[in-house]
Every structure is written in structure tokens, then in C-alpha cells.
């Protein structure tokens, strides 16, 4: 007697509510997931910047086999796009097989067209067949994190290690937390840092929303001198990896080596929390940030992003280093900080 033939369940795609526990469970269990796949990330972006969240799931026989977090990003200056994930450097398709990848990509494109949006951007994850893939612009920097302070310092290349040791000789204080004082100091430092780079600062509501959504999986580390904050970084913790995500320093930070101490102190703190990897994030090839991360002994890994744009439509260009923004960037650097902080958030909330 022949055994019955088993028919594979068809894959379907549907939108799920952000508080559906199956989404968080799938992301938590998947080895390639990042903090930017978390439903909490999308919810924080929606709350902090007013950009609507959508979360697609691929289902086969009642079992989720793939997910795709999406932010409906709209801006009068930069146009519209459906982005995975909004305000993130990762968060693309997370799926177990090619069928789920294709289904989620198709679902995202159908959703975009329904919403009247001409472009879908996938930051990381699997690249769907037929989509445009952009490579060579950005690189990611991540490596294993030693378990103790001595080993962490020993893993830093000699030149950079000397900078860390010099930073340790200055009269600098390290504070870690997520209370109002931590948030206020971080925003003050970060806002000045991005103004100096010529880019508008995100709304503080975005940082508050992320900290609230992540709870103990996010914190702020601040370096100060005589009570004045010099450098500060907001970090995320996910599945054994620390992600220093929004960080910066004021002008005096370079002289006092505050940024060097900040990242060393974060490595030490993360190891104490049980983190096993340090993800330094992405940087554009050839920039100062790219060189800084290499100086710490991190090897660049090229990143590829996939996108699809409707025929005849132009894709978004939001890279502040693009030649088209050279004049605007130069002008922004010269703005008084109070003006940049007032004008920046309404612009930045549309960048996605």
C-alpha cells in the first residue's frame, strides 16, 4: 500500500497587529533578527515620528515562516517610501525559505501600491529576485566581544589602545541609565553632534519612544566632565549583541578623548551584561566614521540594500553625503544650535 502524498501548505501573506505575540516570538527565535525587526521598534518609530507601521507575516499551514516590518514613510521634502525598517540600518525580510521571501516581497509591493507609494526599500535581509540591489556604499562593522576588561582592551589595536588609555587619564565620569537626566543629556549631545555634521536631528520623542519600548534592552551611556556631558550613546541589546546606535560628542569630546572612553566603557558594560557581540553599525565607505571603526579593529563587511520603484518614478535620495545636498549640509553646519534643534525634527521625521 502506497503512503499518502504529503502536500506542502501554500504560503500566504497578511498584515498582523504589532502586539500579536507570534511576531515577537518569531523575531526572538530567529538567529538573523536584529532589534529593528522587533515590533517594538516599529511602534516606537510610529509614536516618535508619526510614520505609520505595517507588519507583514508569511504563513504556511498556520505557522509563521517569515516576517517583514515596514514603515510608511512620507515627507514633503524627500517623497514617500515603504521602508524596512524605518529609521534603521537593518530590518529587511526575515524568512526561512525562498517562497516566503518572494511572498513577503510581493506583499510589500502590493501594500505600497495600495497606499499610493512608488517605492519599497529593504535594508538588509534577503534580496528578492528582480529587485535593484545597491552595494558598495555602506559597510557594517561587528565582531565578537571579549568577556572581561583586560581582554577587551587587548583586542583593540595598539594605536587605538593608546587613545583609550589616554582617555582613562582624564577626569571623566561614566554614567549609564535611561532616566530623564540621561535622556536630556544624550539629546543635547547628539543634537549638537549631528548639527556639526550638517544633518537635522531626529525628534527627541523618537529616542524616548525607543527607550520606553525596549525597556531594559536599551540604555544610555554618557561621558561627562565636571557635570557637563561630552559624549553620549543610546544602545540597544538584542540576542547577545549590543548595538550602539545613536551616539555623538560635543566639540570638547575630541580633545578629552571622550568618544574613545565612551565606546570602551560600553564594551565593558555590555560584556558585564552578558553580551557576546559588538555591532558598531554601518558607515559610508571612505568617511571618518568608517576609518574610526577600522581603527578599533573592526573589519568592514559590505552591506547590500534592495529596492523596487514603480516604472517612471524616481527613488528617494536621503543620504546626507550625496552631492545634491552639499550646499544644504554646509549651511546647516553654520546654524545656531537652537535654530537647528527647532528646524531639524520636522525635517528629520520624514527621512525614515
UniProtKB/TrEMBL annotation:
Residue ranges constituting the BioF2-like acetyltransferase domain according to the UniProt record: 161-294
Name of the protein: FemAB-related protein, PEP-CTERM system-associated
InterPro entries noted in UniProt: Acyl_CoA_acyltransferase, BioF2-like_GNAT_dom, PEP-CTERM_FemAB-rel, PG_Glycine_Bridge_Synth
Lineage: Bacteria, Pseudomonadati, Pseudomonadota, Alphaproteobacteria, Sphingomonadales
NCBIfam families cross-referenced by the UniProt entry: pepcterm_femAB
Regions annotated as coiled coil: none
Pfam families with a match to the protein in the record: Acetyltransf_6 (PF13480)
Amino acid at each position: 500500500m502506497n503512503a499518502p502524498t504529503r502536500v506542502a501548505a501554500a504560503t500566504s501573506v497578511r498584515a498582523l497587529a504589532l502586539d500579536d505575540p507570534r511576531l515577537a516570538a518569531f523575531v526572538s527565535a530567529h538567529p538573523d533578527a536584529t532589534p529593528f525587526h522587533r515590533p517594538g521598534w516599529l511602534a516606537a518609530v510610529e509614536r516618535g515620528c508619526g510614520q505609520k507601521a505595517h507588519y507583514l507575516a508569511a504563513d504556511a499551514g498556520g505557522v509563521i515562516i517569515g516576517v517583514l516590518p515596514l514603515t510608511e514613510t512620507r515627507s514633503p521634502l524627500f517623497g514617500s517610501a515603504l521602508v524596512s525598517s524605518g529609521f534603521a540600518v537593518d530590518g529587511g525580510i526575515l524568512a526561512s525559505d525562498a517562497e516566503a521571501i518572494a511572498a513577503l516581497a510581493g506583499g510589500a509591493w502590493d501594500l505600497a501600491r495600495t497606499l499610493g507609494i512608488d517605492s519599497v526599500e529593504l535594508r538588509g535581509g534577503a534580496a528578492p529576485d528582480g529587485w535593484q540591489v545597491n552595494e558598495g556604499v555602506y559597510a557594517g562593522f561587528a565582531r565578537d566581544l571579549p568577556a572581561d576588561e583586560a581582554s577587551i582592551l587587548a583586542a583593540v589595536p595598539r594605536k587605538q589602545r593608546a587613545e583609550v588609555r589616554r582617555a582613562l587619564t582624564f577626569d571623566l565620569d561614566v554614567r549609564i541609565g535611561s532616566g530623564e537626566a540621561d535622556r536630556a543629556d544624550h539629546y543635547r549631545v547628539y543634537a549638537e553632534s549631528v548639527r556639526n555634521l550638517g544633518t537635522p536631528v531626529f525628534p527627541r520623542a523618537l529616542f524616548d519612544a525607543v527607550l520606553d519600548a525596549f525597556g531594559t534592552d536599551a540604555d544610555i551611556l554618557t561621558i561627562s566632565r565636571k557635570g557637563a556631558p561630552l559624549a553620549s550613546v543610546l544602545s540597544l541589546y538584542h540576542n547577545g549583541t549590543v548595538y550602539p546606535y545613536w551616539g555623538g560628542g560635543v566639540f570638547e569630546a575630541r580633545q578629552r578623548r571622550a568618544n574613545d572612553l565612551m565606546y570602551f566603557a560600553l564594551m565593558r558594560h555590555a560584556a558585564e551584561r552578558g553580551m557576546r557581540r559588538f555591532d558598531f553599525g554601518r558607515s559610508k565607505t571612505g568617511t571618518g566614521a568608517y576609518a574610526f571603526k577600522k581603527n578599533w579593529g573592526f573589519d568592514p563587511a559590505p552591506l547590500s540594500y534592495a529596492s523596487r520603484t514603480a516604472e517612471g518614478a524616481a527613488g528617494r535620495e536621503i543620504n546626507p553625503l550625496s552631492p545634491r545636498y552639499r550646499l544644504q549640509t554646509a549651511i546647516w553646519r553654520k546654524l545656531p544650535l537652537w535654530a537647528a534643534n527647532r528646524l531639524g525634527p520636522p525635517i528629520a521625521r520624514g527621512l525614515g
